[in-house]
Amino acid sequence: MNKYKHIFFDLDRTLWDFERNTEETLLDIYRQENLKEKGIATFEMFMHAYRQINHHLWEQYKSNEITKDYLKTERFYRTLRHFNIIDYPLAEKTGERYLTISKTKKRLFPGSIEILQYLAPKYNLHIITNGFNEVQFDKLKNTGLFPFFKEIITSEDAGTKKPDRKIFAYALSQAGAKNDESLVIGDDPESDIRGARNSGIDQVYVNYSTQKNGVDATYKINRLESLKDIL
Fold first, then answer.
1. Phi and psi, residue 106, nearest 5°
2. How many CB atoms lie within 10 A of CB 216?
3. Do the two domains 6-17+108-229 and 18-102 of this chain adopt the same fold?
4. pLDDT in tens, 78-99
5. CA geometry: angle 217, 231, 221, nearest 5 deg
6. Percent of the chain with pLDDT over 90
7. How far apart (Å, rounded) are the C-alpha atoms in residues 119 and 122?
8. What residues does each domain of the chain span?
9. How far, in Å, are 35, 62, 111, 178, 204 from residue 208 at the CA level?
10. Around Cβ 195, how many Cβ atoms within 10 Å?
11. CATH architecture, range 18-102
12. Is residue 138 a contact partner of residue 129, using CB atoms and an 8 Å limit?
């Protein structure tokens, strides 16, 4: 009999297609704020600049170097400034609009609903995420994912972020689970895989791009359907 009883899924880039949903959100913002007329010639230029800046700031956020509120506005302020648009009120407005729009996007990776339908009768399913509370809960509800999960573990509620061992300990406590009967499923080699491994929890590395093959994980898959071979 399989030893696992509790399955902890990451949300962004594991179930919720972060890249495609973000692109749609940024396109909405680019059009709504008339950014072409303000000096950003193409949407592709806007998206490319934002993604680089956001990645850098998000790494700082994960390391507790900056706050959530700073991140929300600063990523857009720096993006606009990259195109010589110095407008902090616009950055604040855009930052809030990004959160409002993004959580309404519903693109999931292929097989997300189907694999949860397969797993839910057999295991206790949970979410463990570094995302913002006001966004992640609405994402789960808007995509129809929410009913599958018993516990939603967020870094804000835990007071720390993946890969810190404390968030995994908090998640186990909230779920009433033991580390040797749990499994973490995620796409991030550092936050999900190393974090879980350092907490004594088995891991499934979801590698959609198949570009990071050197990751050390208990299991590796490149599509969600392959979870049926493990669970």
1. -125, 15
2. 11
3. no
4. 999 999 999 999 999 999 999 9
5. 40
6. 96
7. 5
8. 6-17+108-229, 18-102
9. 32, 23, 12, 28, 12
10. 23
11. Orthogonal Bundle (1.10)
12. no
For the chain, how big is the Rg over CA atoms in Å?
A: 18
Give the DSSP letter string of the chain: -----EEEE--BTTTB-HHHHHHHHHHHHHHHTTHHHHT---HHHHHHHHHHHHHHHHHHHHTTSS-HHHHHHHHHHHHHHHTT---HHHHHHHHHHHHHHHTT---B-TTHHHHHHHHTTTSEEEEEE-S-HHHHHHHHHHTT-GGG-SEEEEHHHHTS-TTSHHHHHHHHHHHT--GGGEEEEES-IIIIIIHHHHTT-EEEEE-SS---TT---SEEESSGGGGGGT-
- Sheet with strand 124-129: strands edge to edge: 151-154, 124-129, 6-9, 182-186, 202-206, 219-221
Summarize pLDDT for 193-227 with one digit per residue, the tens.
999 999 999 999 999 986 667 789 999 999 999 99
Q: What is the pTM of this model?
A: 0.94
Structure tokens at 188: 């991030």
Mean pLDDT of 151-160: 96
6-17+108-229 under CATH 1.25.40.10, yes or no = no
**Closest by CA position to 201, among listed 175, 221, 223, 183:** 183
Condensed to tens digits (0 to 9), the pLDDT of residues 15-32 reads 999 999 999 999 999 999
Question: What would the two tokens of residue 3 be?
Answer: 């030893």
Pairing of strands 202-206, 219-221: parallel
Answer whether 159's CB lies under 8 Å from 127's CB. Answer: no
